[in-house]
Amino acid sequence: MNQPLIIARAEEFVKEQLGQDTTGHDWWHTHRVRSTACEIAEIERADVFICTMAALLHDVADEKLNPSKEAGLLKVHTWLTANLTEEEQIRHIMLIVETMSFSGGGGEPMQTLEGQVVQDADRLDALGAIGVARTFIFSGAKGRPAYDPEVSPREESLQKEYRDYSKGTAVNHFYEKLLKLKFLMNTAYGRKLAEERHDFMLNFLDQFYKEWNQGRQ
Ligand code: ADP
Ligand code: NI
């Protein structure tokens, strides 16, 4: 099996599928997840080919880009059976893509090391400076405000246990999801990468509140 050729074909397929997306699932998100997944895979001794393929395909089945989750998964399965011959590889990649599309940012456990690697890479792309950028892009695309001091958590809540805030500002998304991701990382190396990005987001929020409150007593 010519792995570089199959990977190149997968890249083309994904670019075609995700090219127009403006909600955080564009080609460059996939590209970063793939690079990070490969880096984690080397360190964690996971199968780099499976991680590459699953990372490339992980968002193609996303419900937001398809009539339904099932339709999205069928699209990925059809592509895999047309391009791969080994049943076991197809089954493994499908398992990862399926778990990723059904779990979202939640807690659905990944059953294989390769799945854990790709999930970590996807979560890492929601953190740090890139994570901040994607959150504001997503909120803008949905018509949501950056921040509302009347509904957003106050600065002091950073010191407390992270709570769920259901209100839909970009800043709230840090509390409802992003600041929890560091604790959900599957691999030791993924966790290590998450630390720096997590701290960056805390610093970003500190600075954000500081500027917001500039001049107030
Ligand atoms: P992925 O499937 O790649 O993990 P998601 O579909 O969960 O990504 O989200 C895409 C991007 O938009 C991520 O960076 C995520 O943090 C951000 N995002 C998701 N939901 C919200 C929200 N309610 N408010 C702001 N940003 C969001
Ligand atoms: Ni993703």
From TrEMBL:
Q: Which residues form the HD/PDEase domain?
A: 22-136
SUPFAM superfamilies to which the protein is assigned, alphabetical: HD-domain/PDEase-like
Q: What is the top-level taxon of the source organism?
A: Bacteria
The portions of this protein that span the membrane are none
The record ties this protein, via InterPro entries, to: HD/PDEase_dom (IPR003607), HD_domain (IPR006674)
Q: Which Pfam families match?
A: HD
Classification via Gene3D superfamilies: 1.20.58.1910, HD-domain/PDEase-like
Q: What PANTHER family does the entry give?
A: HD_PDEASE DOMAIN-CONTAINING PROTEIN, SUPERFAMILY HYDROLASE, PUTATIVE (AFU_ORTHOLOGUE AFUA_1G03035)-RELATED
Q: What name has this protein been given in UniProt?
A: Phosphohydrolase
Q: Which organism is it from?
A: Paenibacillus odorifer
